[in-house]
Amino acid sequence: MIQGFDPRTGQPTGLELPETDRAGVDAAVAAALEAGRAWRGAPAEERARVLEAVADALTARAEELWPLADRETALGEVRLRGEIGRSAGQFRFFAQVIRDGGYAEAIIDHADTSLTPPKPDVRRMLRPLPGVVGVFAASNFPFAFSVAGGDVASALAAGCPVVVKAHPGHPGTSELTASVIRSALPSADLLGLVQGMESGAWLVQHPSVSAVGFTGSVPGGKAIQALIDERPEPIPFFGELGSVNPVVVLPSARREGLAQGFAASLTLGSGQFCTNPGLVFAPEDVVKEFAEAVSASTGTPMLSSRIRDGYTSGVERLSSLTLLATGQAGEGAWAVEPRLFTTDLDSFAAQLPAVAEECFGPSSIVVTYRDVSDLPGVLARLEGSLTATVHATDPAEAAPLVEVLARTAGRLVWNGWPTGVAVTWAMHHGGPWPSATTTFTSVGATAIARWLAPTAYQDWPAELLPQELQDSNPLGVPQRVDGVLSR
Amino acid sequence: MIQGFDPRTGQPTGLELPETDRAGVDAAVAAALEAGRAWRGAPAEERARVLEAVADALTARAEELWPLADRETALGEVRLRGEIGRSAGQFRFFAQVIRDGGYAEAIIDHADTSLTPPKPDVRRMLRPLPGVVGVFAASNFPFAFSVAGGDVASALAAGCPVVVKAHPGHPGTSELTASVIRSALPSADLLGLVQGMESGAWLVQHPSVSAVGFTGSVPGGKAIQALIDERPEPIPFFGELGSVNPVVVLPSARREGLAQGFAASLTLGSGQFCTNPGLVFAPEDVVKEFAEAVSASTGTPMLSSRIRDGYTSGVERLSSLTLLATGQAGEGAWAVEPRLFTTDLDSFAAQLPAVAEECFGPSSIVVTYRDVSDLPGVLARLEGSLTATVHATDPAEAAPLVEVLARTAGRLVWNGWPTGVAVTWAMHHGGPWPSATTTFTSVGATAIARWLAPTAYQDWPAELLPQELQDSNPLGVPQRVDGVLSR
């Protein structure tokens, strides 16, 4: 059975829920596949209206959703209301994305029979993957990376039915969220929900599942990839895994507010963000203020005893470094103390790669350096991250670092903190392994591309072509026609 | 040692070449990586001019290239001259693609500080993968899918250095082609070439290799995937593997020229095309003419004794079917007879999936049907193909098949034959497993996307942004600005 727990008390909360058995997974996938037939064929405008209805339903039911999620995650009203808003906003955003139509990448090449060999008429666009999308919900965002998350919103927007494997950290929230979303869908079967670890294993091996989205740990991601590798037909695995998110404070960086900004980013949500700043390279003169800021910080309960235990052993792993500061644990059964460690650049480099492994939670390492020119060689040895941040007032000082940082991370942040991930057209939330398993993103407009595949139509009769590929362009989507992009 | 053979005589041709040892692979990758530093940073216009110089060099040296390739492949002057032209054309085409700049998918979202939370300035574009691209050349196109092929052209266009593992079927042609291409590159090291099976295994496991392109068989592709799976850091594997390319002749199809078109497509290049029409669903009335056309056809030598042996056993595997026609083997040590088999739809369906496995070479099966409505159920059970073709004069007759064919194949062809693959903006040469390992294409403008990954820049200073992401858009590339696509 699946049981939610209250991180403030460590005690069970809510009803026990049955684990989904194999037959249950089969039924959810089969129902989703069947409901998907109409959905994938529905015009973008129709899908967009449904996505907006989902956003409305989430907003309308926020009063029910956040208290339940708060009991299961202890993330608090403000954060959870904000997260429901983010989730609703994401559904609205993907409605915009599919109305725009550029996501389909319509390309039309007219025939040219004067050439040898003659060039046929070829038209290509992206269409939804044929089967069901499997999504693994994350622990740390019970709405925005869970049943109401970006994977689900982008897959539905693409035209794919979805089956979500709920995260055991918020099973009740998952069930309620699914029922709220289903109330706005043309068929409730478009969104399946399964509970329990084994259900996830069956899901990724199901012959009708065409792709899998996942947000979680490196070991979790590797386990799912291994299961997918056993399939007779491989399918894409879009995993967003671990990330240390290096921050480089350059000598020219403005010191005002720097330490406070760092501590706030570090301890946000008890440090349970994929984009948590786990590693800071800084001149020695900032160390004292960073230490003071972390000492003054107060932790909040972590999401589960398993995550709390992981943090505890992660922090122990760093005990060879100098402990610079310890914050307050704060209230709650699973509350932990924020920690800040320090070491110098040479010593850090000598302990790579182990020292730079992600420690999920409010812990970070300040690596002090003396000469900016020593940084690129060490930065080049870091594993892939979702983000890399530079603090500086002088861009010229940062110039020698840009290329190495762009090879290390998928998003480069200037004079900010990596923990916020805006849902916009340009956002990229991905990066080199192990931060992501592919070059795709899980946040932002292009997240929809994960659930699409191209079809080319050669000399195909106009009456059988999708609207996006017709010369008259009835939907007004961006088309590249004979090499020229236009709307 | 690596030795080329003349398919007309079965005898060795050209010098023996040493197999590249591990140190040789390391050296080629290291040199490519180093040469790639300048290349990936070079402006698109500069890369475009180099690609055009490569095209010029290939064209200028055609008189040397085709006779050498002919000795190693027996594909003949006309075909090989055409293929050099195709290869040169492909380099020119990718010059156009990178000058256009749309391939970089530049997206700019300006900041909006009035929102809660405030929206940062985020700019995203695709940039070359950080390391070296490994390419496995194919047997059947000694230029267009080999050292001068689309994988190399698109990877260089993307800004990536390349190391090619030569195909053992044309080792001398590979060496000469590499030297011709290098003569036009700013650094010869940008294009490495390694010989021998083991060199390929080292190549895909090399830590500096970021992606692998491959055109070949399903077992070959699986073997490379298994090697990649052993890497500590996974990398994308873009394999274009087997395909049977179903053709559906509907009752309304024009009969004139149909059988001749089929036989020509079937026997082109001795059937050694990934897009060879290996399976035809047709009404019984066309069978006789198809049989006559194949009987009247003459084969040419296959590319190697291994491929010839594979064809022979493939044809034996089909001996449970009715042999409908046998063409002439033609001249040459490794020449084979074209074969046409037949069976009815029920019997075919009963023998799935084995009966529909690709038999590489000039062999096909005509599956006769009586009722069009029986087709979708059987078509749905076929494995993925690169193409699916419909012959009909009445689009309405084909309408019930479009969705199932679009799930089966990456390119749908109307009243044509699948063997030609035009290099255009819209071409898609890919499809569901096993025809391809990903949703990407190996031919056409979007083939470049395989070698690119997104980087997002948040609140990044203008002086450190790539030109493609600057507000002034100095290169005039397509940009999506605040959600609106424009040039």
UniProtKB/TrEMBL annotation, chains A, B:
GO terms for molecular function: aldehyde dehydrogenase (NADP+) activity. Residues 5-435 form the Aldehyde dehydrogenase domain. The keyword Oxidoreductase applies. InterPro entries: Ald_DH/histidinol_DH, Ald_DH_C, Ald_DH_N, Aldehyde_DH_dom, Aldehyde_DH_Superfamily, ALDH_KGSADH. It comes from the Bacteria. It comes from Nonomuraea soli. Keywords: Oxidoreductase. This is NADP-dependent aldehyde dehydrogenase. Its EC number is 1.2.1.4. Gene3D superfamilies: Aldehyde Dehydrogenase, Chain A, domain 1, Aldehyde Dehydrogenase, Chain A, domain 2. It holds the Pfam family Aldedh.
